[in-house]
UniProtKB/TrEMBL annotation:
GO terms of biological process kind: double-strand break repair via homologous recombination
Species this protein is from: Furnarius figulus
Residue ranges constituting the RING-type domain according to the UniProt record: 188-229
UniProt similarity note: Belongs to the NSE1 family.
Protein name, UniProt field: Non-structural maintenance of chromosomes element 1 homolog
Encoding gene per record: Nsmce1
Enzyme Commission (EC) number: 2.3.2.27
One Gene Ontology cellular component: Smc5-Smc6 complex
Subunit structure: Component of the Smc5-Smc6 complex.
Protein's UniProt keywords contain Ribosomal protein: no
Predominant localisation class: nucleus
Length: 237
């Protein structure tokens, strides 16, 4: 199989390097980068072959327990690519970048977000946790600084004082979240990837990403659950 034997070229290495340095890249940017890398290294380029190009990189990353994964922004439904470390699905993969107390604040923030009704946690609720941490108490000012760092590093997203998990975090931590929050974590009924901000069917309890809800009900005259066919009572975004 020639595809299986595909060699990792300089173009592949360059693409991987940029992806790793950014942490996460939007699909349209990844397509431009694919084009640029192929052109720079004078290798064959086809605009519709990005996934094949990434598959070749992933085959070479397999022994290193790493993978380029595709995910979706829960906010606008846009596709993103991120490099994921498969060897460590624990939050501890962040341990090299953050102190123990910062990691504890992140874990507690993650709890608040995942256990919430809407996939968000207010800054007030997060800051209230800061002086109840087991590692040691964290001053409010320090907690605000740490939250800012988590946003800059694309683990959290913030909007009007409300925090949710960044797309990068969802792509990276999907397995960790699904196995550690089994009772509440759910996959989207439409795209089958983890959903944090979702609408849930009142009758059967399935969840859908807001962009998936939008897309799915666009073609329906009356919004009915794709699973149980009961009327979808949530407001269509």
């Amino acid at each position: 199989n020639t595809a299986m034997a595909a060699q990792m070229t300089d173009a592949h290495r360059r693409f991987l390097q940029v992806l790793m340095s950014k942490g996460i890249t939007e699909a349209s940017e990844a397509r431009k980068l694919h084009h640029h890398c192929c052109e720079t290294d004078k290798v064959y380029y086809a605009h519709d072959k990005l996934d094949d190009f990434i598959s070749t990189i992933n085959r070479h990353l397999q022994p290193l327990f790493m993978q380029i994964r595709k995910g979706m922004s829960e906010e606008d439904g846009r596709a993103y690519y991120a490099v994921v470390n498969l060897a460590e699905t624990e939050v501890t993969k962040m341990a090299s970048d953050y102190t123990e107390i910062e990691l504890e604040l992140f874990r507690k923030t993650m709890d608040l977000i995942i256990l919430s009704e809407n996939g968000f946690a207010s800054s007030t609720d997060i800051l209230n946790l800061a002086d109840k941490l087991k590692t040691k108490k964290m001053k409010k000012k320090e907690a605000e600084r740490v939250l800012k760092v988590f946003v800059e590093d694309k683990w959290l997203s913030e909007k009007n004082g409300e925090y949710t998990l960044h797309t990068r975090c969802i792509i990276e931590m999907e397995q960790y979240i699904l196995s550690n929050y089994q009772d509440v974590a759910r996959k989207c009924n439409i795209c089958h990837s983890l959903t944090i901000q979702s609408q849930v069917c009142d009758s059967c309890g399935i969840g859908m990403h807001l962009p998936c809800v939008r897309k799915y009900f666009k073609a329906q005259t009356e919004p009915r659950c794709p699973q149980c066919n009961e009327y979808w009572s949530c407001d269509i975004p």
